Amino acid sequence: MKFIMVDIGSTFIKAGLFDVGLKKQIEKTKYPTPPRKANHDSSYYENDAMEVVGIVKGIIHDCCRKHPDTTGILFSTQQHGCVVCHPELEGDTYISWQDTRCLKRRESSGYSYIEELKARFSREMMEPNGVYIKPALALCNLYTLFEEQGLSRKCETHVHTLGSYIIEKLTGNGICHITNAAPMGFANILDNTWRTDMLEQAGLGFIKLPAITSHMECCGYYQEGDVRLGVFPDVGDVQTSVYGTDAVTGDLIINIGTSGQLIYITDRYVPGNYEIRPFYENNYCNVISCMPGGRNFDVQIDYIRDIGRQIFGSSLNREEIWNRLHHMEPWHDTQGLEVDCGFYELPDRLADGSIRHINHDNLKLKNVMWATALDFGRKYREFADYLSGQEARKKTIYFTGGAILKNRKLQEAIQQELEIQEIVCAADDEVFRGMQKLVLKCAERMDWDETGNQRGAGSNRCIPVGNRGSEPTASDAGIRA
């Protein structure tokens, strides 16, 4: 039995094939994520959702052609965004977590859309959601979409997580996992329900949403030609990456990919000035998001590339520039230069980065890069102190995410600023390792029928999401994988 694992990120869609019997990943490939739609307004960050589905179907058919014993598929996806299906839009539109339209102000009132939502929904009201009002939330950008563009609220409108949209297109069933439902901003993580009260207050009570599940059950089958494949829920990429590290309660994770997160694993639901995301095995992830990530460094890299284009008539791509940076003489000096790497919004403020204390001699590339890395460290130290202060943390710190695992200089800067000696660098592509652990649970679920009896190996039945009987559901103790 083999399972396809698909990780849908902002830059790449990565696919792996996992042999359940051997407990080994046997193939891996990646495709560029469909490009951002062109728009004169830089605050919009949209993708054509059907283009993503097309890539996924291509992955399925390619794997099934080469490996006829491929049985199922599991998704890990970027979070917070949503797919909007509305007849007045040009196709089904994925509004990314990188979309910031909600920061725009109404001419009539002078208030931004996000300020309007903050006035409606207090932090206390949103505690059961595990997240608070912030630019990345689907709630904020959905509200802005309908207010700003005046879309009809009388047309049938479906809103999905990116993963549940793919699942519906493959199986006809609209189902999403709680790890992806929660970051949309209007799901109750204590009872796995949508906050219809909030949607009504935001003028969004008319939208239709997928069902929520907290289990690794089969959502239905994708069938086309001789392909028949069990489709399993969409899990959040951050939690799944953490799951792949084997971190346990009390551990702290510094996850730096396109964006960055600080994550603390706990078995207690204790609201604070952080997000609480449902995790696996009866735990929660306390998360501080909008931390500096690869995109913050890319601001510097793209400046270098622009100099290449404008002055020398050619430019290297980002990867080539990073390769050369890593082979430069050591970065370990700033000569007094300081960088504020907040080129994107941070947990405590909007974007406002800078390079300071420039004199006639210190504005050099290596100084700028090391000062940027040190500022990453300062910002992670500040918020790590807050997160770990909630409980007596005495365990391990893990580095995860491609942007830090590939950047030894950044690791050194953060380690220096946090004043810690022992750090575990997770294996590259730890999201796949987390998915492998979940696939084993999915495979077990394919061996049981609706009545709880183990079935024969030749059967293709799966557990309907709406018919779980007395099976345990998420509670204030967390969720089961």
TrEMBL record:
A GO term, aspect molecular function: kinase activity
Residues that span the membrane, as ranges: none
UniProt record, GO biological process: carbohydrate metabolic process
CDD domains: ASKHA_NBD_FGGY_SHK
Highest taxon above the source species: Bacteria
Annotated region (Disordered), positions in chain: 453-481
Annotated keywords: Kinase, Transferase
Pfam families, A to Z: FGGY_N (PF00370)
Stretches assigned to the Carbohydrate kinase FGGY N-terminal domain: 4-224
Database matches in InterPro entries: ATPase_NBD, FGGY_Carb_Kinase, FGGY_N
Family statement drawn from the similarity comment of this UniProt entry: Belongs to the FGGY kinase family.
Protein's recorded name: Carbohydrate kinase FGGY N-terminal domain-containing protein
Organism: Enterocloster aldenensis
Organism classification: Bacteria, Bacillati, Bacillota, Clostridia, Lachnospirales
